[in-house]
């Protein structure tokens, strides 16, 4: 009998936001998997370790899954990573793949999940708290009300059209595009009502930085940076 692959969302950074189900399954699974070449350097592993230091004794598959838009490189890295997962699953071992936030939202895990489903393995996705929900809570405000629309925009791709949408815009991983975003928001606000802008870098982590308005926001920030734009 083959093992089961679990995609486990560990939340945005605060270890206290791990769900009880995530903790139970991480304990129960024989093998962990993380996206990165050194487990101790992966953010998802470090979050879980604060709650379950005993995971240091578990076998862990460190899967090299580079953050790139090169399709050939992605396909090659995903194929190699899945073959490593497959070896453990074929031995009848359950694998807990740790991923930041929620596995269904721009996660590295979902590529392994799709391959596992196609190959006929048992799989299960364990929801985690998405980063934009944690950021909104940290800012002590709601995301949307009544008929307002919510737009989740990946900032590493073309986001110019997304910023023109009506409602609340969540800009994921916006750190490197901050100057560009600020310029566009200033242009948009000159012809419309002012935007309400807030941003958190490294939400729930020790190095967390909170910016309550546009004037506070720098021109560049780290990878785990999320901005909320409201009309």
Task: Describe the protein.
The chain has 231 residues and is an alpha/beta fold. It has two domains: 4-126, Cobalt-precorrin-4 Transmethylase, domain 1; 131-230, Tetrapyrrole methylase, C-terminal domain (Methyltransferase, Cobalt-precorrin-4 Transmethylase, Domain 2, 2-Layer Sandwich). It has six helices and ten strands; from the N terminus they run βαβαβαβαβαββαβββ. It has helices at residues 20-28, 43-51, 71-90, 109-119, 131-138, 178-191; strands spanning 4-9, 31-35, 59-63, 95-99, 122-126, 150-154, 168-172, 196-201, 209-211, 225-230. A five-stranded parallel beta sheet has the order 3-2-4-1-5, sandwiched between helices. A five-stranded mixed beta sheet has the order 6-7-10-8-9, covered by helices on one side. Strand 2 (31-35), helix 2 and strand 3 (59-63) form a beta-alpha-beta unit. Helix 3 crosses helix 4 (109-119). It is elongated, with a radius of gyration of 19 Å. The mean pLDDT is 93.
Tell me the fraction of residues in β-strands, as a range. 15-25%
Radius of gyration: 19 Å
The CATH H-level superfamily of the largest domain is Tetrapyrrole methylase, N-terminal domain
Distance separating the two termini: 54 Å
Number of domains: 2
Could you give the topology of this structure?
Layout: E1 4-9, H1 20-28, E2 31-35, H2 43-51, E3 59-63, H3 71-90, E4 95-99, H4 109-119, E5 122-126, H5 131-138, E6 150-154, E7 168-172, H6 178-191, E8 196-201, E9 209-211, E10 225-230
Parallel strand pairs: 1-4, 1-5, 2-3, 2-4, 6-7
Antiparallel strand pairs: 7-10, 8-9, 8-10
Helix pairs in contact: 3-4
């Amino acid at each position: 009998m083959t093992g089961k692959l679990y995609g486990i969302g560990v939340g945005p950074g605060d270890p206290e936001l791990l769900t009880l189900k995530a903790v139970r399954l991480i304990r129960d699974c024989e093998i962990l998997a993380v996206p990165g070449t050194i487990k101790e350097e992966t953010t998802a592993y470090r979050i879980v370790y604060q709650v379950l230091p005993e995971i240091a004794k578990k076998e862990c598959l460190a899967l090299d899954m580079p953050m790139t838009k090169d399709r050939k490189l992605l396909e090659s890295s995903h194929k190699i990573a899945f073959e490593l997962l497959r070896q453990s699953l074929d031995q009848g071992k359950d694998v807990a793949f740790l991923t930041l936030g929620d596995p269904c939202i721009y996660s590295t895990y979902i590529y392994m999940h799709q391959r596992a489903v196609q190959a006929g393995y048992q799989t299960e996705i364990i929801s985690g708290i998405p980063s934009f929900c944690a950021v909104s809570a940290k800012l002590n405000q709601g995301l949307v009300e009544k008929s307002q629309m919510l737009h989740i925009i990946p900032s590493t791709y073309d986001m110019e059209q997304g910023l023109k949408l009506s409602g609340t815009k969540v800009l994921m991983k916006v750190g490197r595009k901050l100057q560009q975003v600020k310029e566009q928001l200033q242009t948009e606000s000159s012809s419309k009502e002012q935007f309400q802008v807030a941003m958190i870098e490294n939400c729930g982590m020790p190095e967390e930085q909170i910016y309550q308005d546009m004037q506070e926001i720098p021109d560049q920030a780290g990878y785990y940076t999320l901005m909320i734009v409201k009309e």
